[in-house]
Amino acid sequence: MTTTLRAILALTLLAGFYLLVGLILAVAVAADALYLTHPSHLAALKGVIVLTVAALALLRALFMVGRKKDGDDAYGRIVSPQEEPELWQEVTALAGAVGTAPPDEIRLVPDVNAAVMEETSWLGLRARHRRMFIGLPLLGLLSRSELASVLGHELGHYSGSHTRLGQPTYRGRVALIRTVGGLGNHPFVQRLFVWYAKLYFRISEAVSRRQELEADEFAVKIAGRRAASEALTKVHIAGAAWGAYGSEYLPLIGPAKARPTELYGGLRHLLNGQRERFLNEANSAETSPYDSHPSLPDRLAAISRLPESPVHVDGRPAATVLRDPAGAERAIEADLWSDEARALPAVPWEELAARALYNGANAEAVSDLLVAAQRINGAPEPTLGGAFAAVAAGRIGELAAGLRDLGWQGNGDDPALVENVLVRAVQGVLVETRRARWILSWEGPITLRDASGAEVEVKDAVSHVIANPAASGELRALLERYGVPAEHRPALLAAQAQGPYRQAPHPQGPYPATQQGPYPQGPPR
């Protein structure tokens, strides 16, 4: 089936969706009218009520789709030709090369992403406003030739009229998803729309995948096969890294009670440190009939079969297309943070990671273990020696019960709970006494290291002691080697979580809003 036929079929199915909604509404109205004029038994009334409620749920879903959300027009920073003349000149020249008009608006956005969209009316027959979105992080990763490839790809969507049907198609997807979600209490009607949605998505996404390959042809025409392939690979790698950055590193902001001085600087370090990991992820990403884009290997293979274009290679950094790349990056970063996050101190990533691991993994473990042991022993104050004495006496069950009273979860396994807290507590004591520190590595996990740089391993020793409480002297000896006395008292108690990194209480929602994905994703076209 050709792309044009699939597009026509997708629009036909979209129209059919609204007809299906209309049919259900008509049946509901008819059933209501029939029951009111000819009342019958209770079972009929229940059926009429269920049908009416389902029809109201459909109406509500469609109404929510039609509403314009706050912030729909606030994505990214608009840059005018006066603000960024070279960027506009580049985009305008590339638009001419692919045979289309330039966008009406260019926005710099915070994602590892590039996209275009076109506001249309009359089901795409009338174009109203074109927007191009350029992810600022990409400019720090690509060369000028590679950037031209990315922009040529996106402008190719305009040239191929792909964006004309993008908005109604996107609205149709949202309408179907909202409709299915809003029918959770009406399983029969929901199953009907789930079946319809799957059919619609399979056809519309097949159209999208074909359009991506067509847009890649424009990328090769503009910048050549090598630049197109390199750009596509880099963007997919960066998309995988951006996802890991958001799930593995940015959550450290909360327990650290601080934000990084350089948000995108950390992303670049992560990319450099684990490039092979993200390349493997990009190449091995699973695909399905519901994907809007072909896989990276499929796209690279398609590019390799295209005729080469004689092009001039421009190896300058893509960021040189901006007047002040560093200033633009700071501005985009500032837009990402919430008001609460802006109030947090800005620290280097190395300091942020050290704070986060101590505050999140060690601080309460130290205080709670020592307090639980104090309650068991009846000691006048919580000390490390008291905790070791409780372990040596084999009072694991009592320690576990005391830790649960302080909020720890252990799934009923007393030794495992005490072992987990004891590992964290020993680590925390070493940090509190500044005998060790959590060290960030962009090439792997954060590790606890002593002043010489050697990794400090405590888990094996703790596991041995939990299995054989009489060996608790091994833990004393380990800490004594670092000069930590058994009389050590915690730097913070459970109600005063401060420790060596004294900060204000953690506010809600300090994280930046991140989106994962290479330029195939982003705002709807």
Main-sheet strand order equals: 1-2-4-3
Shape by Cα distribution: flat
Instruction: Please provide the count of β strands.
Output: 8
What profile does the largest beta sheet have? 4 strands, mixed
Mean pLDDT: 81
| Helix percentage range | 55-70%
Radius of gyration over C-alpha positions, nearest whole angstrom: 30 Å
Proportion of residues in β-strands: 5-15%
List the domain count as a whole number: 2
Counting copies of identical and different chains, the oligomeric state is single chain
Q: What is the overall number of helices?
A: 19
Poorly predicted runs are: 493-525
Structural category is alpha/beta
Distance N to C terminus = 23 Å
Can you write the helix and strand succession as a string? HHEHEEEHHHHHEHHHHHEHHHHEEHH
GO molecular function: metal ion binding; metalloendopeptidase activity
Subcellular location: Cell membrane
InterPro entries: HtpX_protease (IPR050083), Peptidase_M48 (IPR001915)
Organism: Actinomadura harenae
Task: Walk me through the structure.
Helix content is 58%, strand content 7%. The two termini are 23 Å apart. β3 (114-121) and β4 form a beta hairpin. With 525 residues, it is an alpha/beta fold. The strands form 3 sheets. Strands 1-2-4-3 form a 4-stranded mixed sheet. A two-stranded parallel sheet has the order 5-6. Mean pLDDT is 81; it is low at 493-525. It has 2 domains: 77-167 and 202-345, no CATH class; 349-481. α7 (187-249) crosses α11, α14 packs across α15 and α16 (396-405) crosses α17.
